[in-house]
Specification:
The protein has about 325 residues and is of the alpha/beta class. Helices cover about 40% and strands about 15% of the residues. Helix 8 (about 250-265) links the parallel strand 8 and strand 9 (about 265-270).
Length: about 325
Amino acid sequence: MRKVVFRSRIVKTLGLPTLLILAWLLACIGPASAEHREVILLGGQSNMVGGGDINRIPASDPLRSPLEDVLFYYRPQGGGAVLPANSWVDLQVGGSGGSLFGPELSFGHALNRLDPGGNYALIKYAQNGTDVHTNWNPEVSDNVYSVFRETVASALQALIDAGDTYEIVGMLWTQGIRDGKDARSASQYQEDLEDLISDVRLNYGSDIPVFISRLSVDMVAANVGAPGECRVDRNTPVCPDDPTLPNYGLTGIRMGQEGVAADDPLAYLIDTDAFEVVGSHFTTNGSIALGEAFATSYYQNVVVPEPSAAMLCVSILGFGALWRHRRVW
């Protein structure tokens, strides 16, 4: 009887809503030793590998310092990387070799500013000069996509071994120059990229949003087209979807990327036309702008529509305060 009386006094003193709030908060806090990571995958070719140079930004810029709030796991495409490969580290420069970085650096910093309650972990594998129709083709064995999947598997296992849980919440994709050089048409590229996205969702989650950086209108590739032919150029930005044209060029790839985003409600296009480029590559400023644009799009399309668990906990706490101080009529 004492137990019943004691419990009834607790309910009467604190109130049932307060007890429910406390239960919710305990669920939100969870075990102290475990972390739940929101994992974002990064793939593509040279502009995802990255050519940004940390020495070209001011010494006071936060990008120069490791970011403890965002984890980073990568597999280098070759020699020259200075970060510990194939292991989780704080997000920092060096994954592209020496002082170089890709869009992951500014992406992680920007997303952390936009969503400080997130617990993000980035997994990146990219390789220079790779195409979608062969190198990233899910039906081809022992290719770049195979290495990408191996990298993701190793990274996720490392989280599990550390006692963490995870959810894959998105993918960033920066690629297309190689397919332009290979004269892939808009329809061909769109089909190839859709096949890749389908396989990513088959393996990592059916509702994973994919963020695609469209090739800049100012990008050119050495062996793509010639003056007057179908290619990316501000004076002739649109070409007919005709795969029989010689050197179909980068405009077809842009159109294919646009087609994927138009047909897939969970694919989002990043407009890079205002970003600084030299030839077919983003400069340091261009790489930073790309990462920030990725972060803005992810935040607007994923974080804002779906509040995090931390935000839900804060909301519940706020409701509890209002309930305790409600006016009695």
